[in-house]
Amino acid sequence: MSKLAALLLLLLSFTAHAQRTETQMLSGTGNDKTVKWQFYCTAGRNSGKWTTIPVPSNWELQGFGKYNYGHQKDTARGKEKGLYKYQFKVPASWQGKVVNIVFDGSMTDTEVKINGQSAGPVHQGSYYRFKYDISKLLKYGKTNMLEATVAKHSANESVNDAERRGDFWIFGGIFRPVFLEALPVSHISRVALDARADGSFKADVYTGGEADEVVGQLYSLDGQKVGGEVKAAVAAGGAVTRLQTTVSNPQLWTPETPNRYRLALTLRKGGQTVHTLSQRFGFRTVELREREGYYVNGVKIKFKGVNRHSFWPSSGRATSKALSIMDVNLMKDMNMNAVRMSHYPPDDHFLEACDSLGLFVFDEVAGWHAAYNTPTGTKLTEEMVVKDETHPSIIGWINGNEGGHNFDLDPVLDRMDLQKRPVVHAWQVFRGTDTQHYINYDYGNGTHLHGHNIVFPTEFLHGLYDGGHGAGLEDYWEQMWREPLSAGGFLWDFSDAAVVRTDKGGILDTDGDHGPDGILGPYREKEGSYFTIKEVWSPVFFERREITPAFDGTFRIQNRFTYTNLSACRFIWKLAQLPTPGGTAAPAVRTGTIAVPSIAPTEYGPLKLALPADWAQADVLYITATDPTGREIYTWSWPIARPAQVAQKLAITTGSGSVTLTETDSLYTANAHGVTLTFSRKTGLLRQVRNAKGLIPLTNGPVLAEGETAFEGLKQHQDGANVVIDATFGKASRYQSLQWTVYPSGWVRMTAKYFPKDYDFALAGLSFNYPEKEVRGIQWRGDGPYRVWKDRMKGTNLGVWTKAYNNTSTGEPDGTKSPLYPEFKGYYSNFYWLTLQTTGQPLTIVCDQEDVYLRLFTPRFAAKPYNTAPAFPSGNLSFMHGITPIGTKSQKAENMGPMGKTNMYYDYSKDPSYAKEITLYFDFSGDGAPAQKAVGKK
Asked: Which class for 867: exposed (0-12), middle (13-18), buried (19 or more C-beta within 10 A)?
């Protein structure tokens, strides 16, 4: 290469570089990549001395200042400030350019100086990108000094009202990135886009300096040109330049198909390119049709949404791109299609993740229960729109939360947004939308779904501890799905707000009952509601189907996608044999794919499985659906073998030897195969169990969960080689019968028939005592691995599960640790058998009836649980026909839909055929792994 050619290449490279916006990071990019700045805290921990701090960060998490929750009165308010210093160089080549210093977020009042000179007015407001032109303050090619003074609380009381006095943690510091941007004197300063589903495209291009022409070219993301160049002359005086074109049959942006394009802009002066800019966007049309619904691309939307704070336990509101992608993926994995930014605009990388992975977004001007004043709110609203307006995921703006609405800001959003996206007020009837929070299932005359507005609560089912979220959701969602004026809703909220307390040895703190509101734990641990939501909000809906010998492999399913045909999804079936007690081998599995017919959104159709001829020999059928991107929608399970079939294979009711029975005034004592059982003749209850290895501490049962026992006595008789002990009861008893059968094998059967306490009742079932301190874990066959409530039945699968003992109270951190999930204690549905793993001998119990719940001890509830501590029966090991629902922080379970009501049982004829019946087989051998031998077989 000649010297001239090399010089020309260098000149071209320099020219192209000079035409682009150049950026230089002064801070790190997030909590996973920070830069140390000098720092001085004026009050609280580690105050009064210069040291260093990572930027971005919140200073409380770095050991400075004082932790504050928004509800607390802070006596030191106004005294706590952070002073930052950072030295940096800028290239000499930047001289003559427009150089801005950009802060993506700083809490809260921020004064900026460059080389000792003010960069501009103090910025008030925490969650908004602001910038200063510092071109005249810089020393080019030399070292510069940045100084920033950040006040944790604002001198503007409206900012404190909107941001600092809320139901969330309050932090201080530069918590989002800080960087420089260098632009040519003639440059593009802002682009507003409106790309619609019909292919119409317009862009308003804002410019600075002098230029003649703006040229736009659309591209696909793989670099292919879309249409030709679009040009427009720059109006004199720097007015906005409008570019317009039309694209034929664009690929549309939706949460199910997040297709995007790229706009390349070129600013020219005198025929020469002076600045270039690239912006991604998506074609889609957003409409709010009065008294009808929310529409995107002409299709009515049902929001399956959640509220999300920008939060991480060890870094507060300082997050990262990786965290944003993780959170969006978790939402997508729960089959959500929408997220509300509570209660402020998010990091830009979160919106980028919503754009690329596909989530509807409602972006929000802060204002928890009070609003910014109009001058401040106008400036901050404009900053939010300028930063966020091009994101196709944003389909609406929210002006304040729960009374934090400044109506003067609605015209600002209308004026600023080229797309004219709808504006809503959270928890207010406004512009034809009703977004009331924490609505009851039936909210009453003239309101909610009895009114005329489009209804989508921007907060519902407040998920304190284990209540809410999944509990009640099935009732709410089925109502929302079928009601034409419902646009769905947004759960409160995504993850527990537990912060690492650097002032308390690193414990996790939720500020009592203020922070544990999440579907996920603070480090995104999955709580039970995660899986319930995943199933309830599945876009594949299975109509109920029982698997019987006549099953022909056909299910009737509904497509609850908004835009996707089910034929684009993949379905796989699995037939599995489940392990027996003590077995650890993975179940034997056979699999196959399912041909899916064309089923359009909202339509029903058949799903036909080509199962092998011997399918009925399997224990369970699973079906897994994945969406067109390969993301699992859900895995469903159906029992093939019922409890009675399994019990027949497990319980050993024959054997050599005999059963002996002795009696005293107070006891019956039965002996068989080294097992000794004693029953109280005064109460009818099991008193003690022993075998050759020692005591098995199962006692004091069975006790009715509710209702009069009216026990009268025990009687016994011989039934072949077996001994049968029958209880007798008075007329007032809810028991119809109670019988114990002791077999020569040492196995024992208990059969009870009873009627629930009343027409409606909280609990129905039978309980025993077992010392919790001796339990180390459990293996069981049934639905799991998470517990259920009466109003949160979905989200489990039939299988054989193993779980170590824990004492988790959902959402309550245990010292320095997050809670352990799944929780050990609680109710488990579809119970077949269990083996308790203990400090002594294992205990196996087998059930031969359907629809029985296993109760494992009583969960540890928080000191102030509101409606999230349901009743449990006496004892601690129970076999139930009726269990309790769970409420939310703001609602009792009975107000959350039919599933939250008390149990009902209306037959009072006392006809034994209507009695609730339960049969349990007990293996008291201490082996924990019963042999495979059928009941009654010789």
From this structure: buried
Tokens 């921007």, located at residue: 458
Where residue 239 falls among pLDDT bands split at 50, 70, 90?
A: confident
The count of C-alpha atoms lying within 13 angstroms of the C-alpha of 106, restricted to the half-sphere facing its C-beta, is: 28
Cα distances from 254 to residues 202, 348, 630, 786, in angstroms, run 19, 19, 17, 33
Provide CATH code, domain 300-536: 3.20.20.80
| Domain at 187-281: CATH code | 2.60.40.10
* Angle at the Cα of 477 from the Cα atoms of 471 and 479, rounded to 5 degrees: 120
- Which CATH fold topology does 18-183 show? Jelly Rolls (2.60.120)
DSSP codes of every residue in 244-272: EEE-SSPPBB-SSSB--EEEEEEEEETTE
Is residue 626 over pLDDT 80? yes
Q: Residue 853: left (phi > 0), alpha (psi -120 to 50), or beta?
A: beta
Q: Give helix 321-333 / helix 348-357 axis angle, nearest 10°.
A: 40
Residues of the chain with CATH 2.60.120.260: 18-183
463 closest CA partner among 715, 792, 782: 792
Q: Where in the chain is the domain with CATH 2.60.40.10?
A: 187-281, 540-639
Could you tell me if 580 and 569 are in contact, meaning their C-beta atoms sit under 8 angstroms apart? no
Strand, coil or helix: 881: strand
pLDDT digits (tens, 9 = 90+) for 315-360: 999 999 999 999 999 999 999 999 999 999 999 999 999 999 999 9
- Report the alpha-carbon distance of residue 515 to residue 171 in Å, rounded: 15
Q: Which CATH architecture has domain 660-923?
A: Distorted Sandwich (2.70)
User: How far apart (Å, rounded) are the C-alpha atoms in residues 642 and 628?
Assistant: 35
CA distance 803 to 857: 14
CB atoms within 10 A of CB 247: 17
Can you point out the beta strands (E) in 442-553?
Answer: 454-455, 488-491, 499-501, 507-509, 540-542
- HSE (CB half, 13 Å, CA atoms) of 409? 29
> Domain 540-639, CATH 2.60.40.10 — does that match?
yes
pLDDT in tens, 126-182: 999 999 999 999 999 999 999 999 999 999 999 999 999 999 999 999 999 999 999
